[in-house]
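As agreed, record minuted below.
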Amino acid sequence: MDELDKWFSGLFGKNSDSKNQNFKSPAKTNFPQNNRQQPKQVFSKQQSAQKSVPAKTGSPQQDDKQQPSHPANKSHHGEHRPQGQQRSQGHHQGQHPHGQQHPHGQHPHGQQHAKRAQHGRGQHFKRQSHPAKQTAQPAPQPKPTPIIKGKVKIIPLGGLDEVGKNMMLVEYENDIIIIDMGLEFPSEDLLGIDYVIPDITYLENNRHRIRGVVITHGHLDHIGGIPYILPKLDFPPVYGTKLTIGLITKRCEEFNQQKTAKLHTINPDVPIRLGNFLINFFRVNHSIPDAVGIVVDTPIGKIIDTGDFKFDATPPRNQAPADLAKIEKLGEQNVLALFCESTNALKPGHSASEAKVGEVLDSIIGKTKGRIIIASFSSQIGRIQIIIDSAIKNNRKVYVGGRSMRENIDIAMRLGYIDAKKGYIHDLRQYKKNPDHESLILTTGSQGEAVSALSRIANGEHPHLQVKKGDTIILSSSPIVGNERAIHTVINKLSLLGADVIHNDLMDVHTSGHGKQDELARMISYIKPEYLVPIHGEYYMRMGLAKLAMEKCGIPESNIIMLKNGDVLLGERGRIYKSDEVAETKYILIDGSGEGKVGSQVQMDREIMSQNGALVVLLYVSRKGKNITRDPDVVTRGFIYMHESEEITQEIIRIAVDAYKRIREKNPGANRKDIKKYVRQTIDRFTHERLERRPLIIPLIIEG
């Protein structure tokens, strides 16, 4: 067998038979040592939907044949390029490779997924829409040409130095796969912006080489960008677990993409092939069910993305345990690089189990005599099941409020991730005069969002529910950074209305879906990667993971690579290193108003108006524009106080008239644009010198 045959045979190796097993806390906390050393652009929802075009891939197919075993690759210690190297200017333009075109073919899959327990379906409220039909089989992909020379390119387009818009691409020869396609909620300075998504300039230039999108789980920071990005990439196929695809389907329906998006449900125990890449999965625990880590078999070695994870020995029912045996088995397969999440890398110890939170919530529900209102994340499907179980046990009907909460519960019930006895789950809009001691309201708004159900309840604006003395309100969440003030405002308002408010600072009514230091160290020590790349977090979080890996897992500093969004990581057999290339990563801003693109100038204008107000000057001129026919009108908003407005207004009128006459005398042929610019600059100098303020100044010339 020649070298190509050996590589080809090894790449199509059989997956190890690994059974799910519950995590058992070790007696010691020591872990095994690893012995291997911007301009901005905005698209509206309306534009995104209008650009939908049919995709080109065919119907899904799958083969169930067993595969030969996969020999382990030899590991090699490669040099690591220093992080301080010079970066090239501009963004990288992808080039079409001149390699051989891959013929279409199918890769037989390995071990079949064990039968999962059947869960009963509960009674649920009326659904507003029916998601598009899902398939459990991946689309056919080209059979890879067995090339063992060349480099793998890895580019994070989001998720670094931020918490959100997670997205990464892996490229080899003529094939590109994408891992996750998330969004980020905007910072306070991005006025009028709903979401921020990754820059996909590199992918748009190489869309013909994209073989598929693989999703780790169904949170918006991993799937929220899909309806905005897919149309611009000609709708490549998307792969995810059952619940993940269910949530993506709903998102695509909102953008009228259910007929053009190709969504494929994967079995985590069955690999899929996308071009030159063989993709395997392993289940992890997270705050949403059906979360997986992703193993990408490339011609130069295995690359793993953990996704978001924790290790929970007692996960909620209807959720599979983590694939610990499969994860440990990866440590025997010479993994080249581990891309590991870093969210809780600075928090010592082990995250609390959902079972512990369930015990606390059940105790509160059992002891409370009045009405109960619980606010949580709508994606906390396991937590929601725990709350429903406790409510039924205590003979309370559950009334669901908030659009996202209703939709997610509906999807989860239909797919078997939530079940309940008939007659116990109702829409909050049906809530009337059910006895308080037999009622539990489950709603959104745990982050103090202004338009959420809980905020409207706190403000007395909810059409179906008013807080009264004796109500118990539980915030089953922890504050996201930046939301603390809004949450405190809601708590204060609810308390003033007579409610007893319970939050995580008072009782353990929440636990994180992200593993703390012990769990992160355990993952790294299980997998034993040659290189570690901290992802999913601010820089200080990722540095915390790097330090943890060096101190507890034996990863040498030279083998830990700190990237920025857009950095290009190159991989050869046995080593990876940072390239001088850099892909473009400007902000792409989503304005949900439907008004179209909003560039940097619009954002600057919004910021100026928010800080200094606006000033509009209307100049009335003759038909040919030679003379001013009447005094200008001045309109201000948020600029000057009423008691000083008359004097300032008259001064602005005088300055505007003088400026208009001066520019016409100096340049009789000046066009409107030049005239307005001169008038604006003249007024700006006055407001800055006289008032030390610079409002947004808008001169308008009206002929007639």
Observations:
- Residues 642-666 form the longest helix (25 residues).
- Residues 165 and 409 are 24 Å apart (CA to CA).
